[in-house]
Amino acid sequence: MRWLTLYARSRQVPASLAAVLFSAAAVWALVARDGGGGAVDPRTPVFVLVAGVTAASIGLGGQDHALDRTAAIGWRPRRAAHVLLIGTVVAAVLLAVRATGTDLAATAFVVRDSAGLTGLVALGAVVCGAPYAWTPAVGWLSFSVFAPPPTSLPTEIATWMLLPPGTPAATWTAVALAVTGTTVYALAGPRR
Fold first, then answer.
1. 118 touches 178 (CB < 8 A)
2. Positions in the chain whose pLDDT score sits under 50
3. 49: closest CA among 126, 107, 131?
4. Which of 55, 98, 99, 141 is the most exposed place for a label (fewest CB within 10 A)?
């Protein structure tokens, strides 16, 4: 238990969790203020998910990379568990908003996007380092918001996070990102 507490503190988990909760509460308040009864723009839950994985991505690297790499423990399963935990918590917080009566998105949409976005920040940690792990997720979101309507497979892949659940291209893109990001991060760890 002591190891888990130290690990959580070194990965800034309390601050990240507070940011995830705050972003979900802020979006819930905005949607509830507008009545919350109608259909919600798919960008709204995606913004919450991107904010959540962005806040949590800072913990994908420790304070001292050399110390992490020399520790006599198996980092690979811990890294994979960390990535999976980020996706689970971010999705759970958004799904918990439904308990208030505000339906921001379908469960399949939230699970698909949280998995894909978590894999994307894990890839970002490997390529850019933990402090900048958020850049691929925010960059892809920015592109998706301004991309043309999805009329072909490449545009469906480009806008995967905004497409309705059950869209094969979006689902497979999210699965590919989740598996690749988690695997690469677990094996290689964050960039120094």
1. yes
2. none
3. 107
4. 99
